[in-house]
Design a protein that fits this description.
Strand content: under 5%
Strand order of the largest sheet: 1-2
Distance between the termini: 74 Å
CATH topology of the largest domain: Cytochrome Bc1 Complex, Chain D, domain 2
Number of helices: 7
Helix content: 25-40%
CATH superfamily of the largest domain: Cytochrome c-like domain
CATH class of the largest domain: Mainly Alpha
Mean pLDDT: 87
Oligomer: single chain
């Protein structure tokens, strides 16, 4: 999973033009699309589980706090339990020393590595990107992420694959160093949802879309209200104009 998401950053550079960049992405009808779109909270909760069990060992979610999980339907007690699983380095204390404590809902998601050098050392020199904004990092990000996660196929018979590479038609050059990260049954959802690769890809995309834009629903509601006010005032101004100028020939 760690190298998979690194490709999302690489694809935003000129390397994207080298191959795989012109293929049409899979078009998914996302619940958050459109002016009235909302977050599918059940899907987002399952996506959090996929992130937690598959992605979090390498990728940070730096701009999200544990308490934000209440926004996608987790209870206060559930959030406290999730946060408590993390061991946070805090301090200094009165003796000037750092110390360990349980995570709290107010804490940001714990980073998997203490610093960038530690992250690079554990990942062959590559720095696993923060996933907080990964869906917003490129146009059509949700469809791109889903397409990449589900884009692994057997290589064409006439294609020479480099050692250790997997074929992915949405990756530039179509060769990716990461093996398919989402395998059916990899996680066990408490709501009984069958964890196929496609389902996990969809759910983790919903979760990461929410993480990238947690204020989306509020913004859309505000936009609808503003639009409604504009319509009302436009009608009122038009009626006022008609009244004021009705005697003018």
């Amino acid at each position: 999973m760690k190298k998979l998401f690194l490709t999302l950053i690489l694809l935003s550079t000129n390397a994207f033009a080298a191959g795989g960049g012109d293929i049409k992405l899979k078009e998914i009808k996302w619940p958050f699309d459109g002016a009235f779109g909302t977050v599918d909270r059940q899907a987002a909760q399952r996506g959090f589980q996929v992130y937690k069990e598959v992605c979090a060992s390498c990728h940070a979610l730096e701009y999200v706090s544990y308490r934000n999980l209440e926004e996608i339907g987790f209870s206060e007690d559930e959030v406290k339990a999730i946060a408590a699983e993390a061991t946070i380095i805090d301090g200094p204390n009165d003796d000037g020393e750092m110390f360990e404590r349980e995570g709290r809902p107010s804490d940001r998601f714990k980073r998997p590595f203490a610093n960038e050098k530690a992250a690079r050392a554990a990942n062959g020199g590559a720095y696993p990107p923060n996933l907080s904004l990964i869906v917003k990092s490129r146009p059509n990000g949700a469809n791109y992420l889903y397409s990449l996660l589900t884009g692994y196929e057997d290589a064409p018979s006439d294609m020479q694959m480099s050692e250790g590479m997997s074929y992915n038609k949405y990756f530039p050059g179509n060769q990716i160093a990461m093996a398919p990260p989402l395998i059916e049954g990899l996680v066990e959802h408490t709501d009984g949802t069958n964890a196929t690769a496609e389902q996990m890809a969809r759910d983790v995309t919903v979760f990461l879309q929410w993480a990238a834009e947690p204020e989306m629903e509020q913004r859309k509601r505000m936009g609808i209200k503003v639009f409604a006010y504009l319509i009302i005032f436009t009608v009122l101004f038009y009626m006022a104009k008609k009244i004021i100028w009705r005697d003018v020939k």
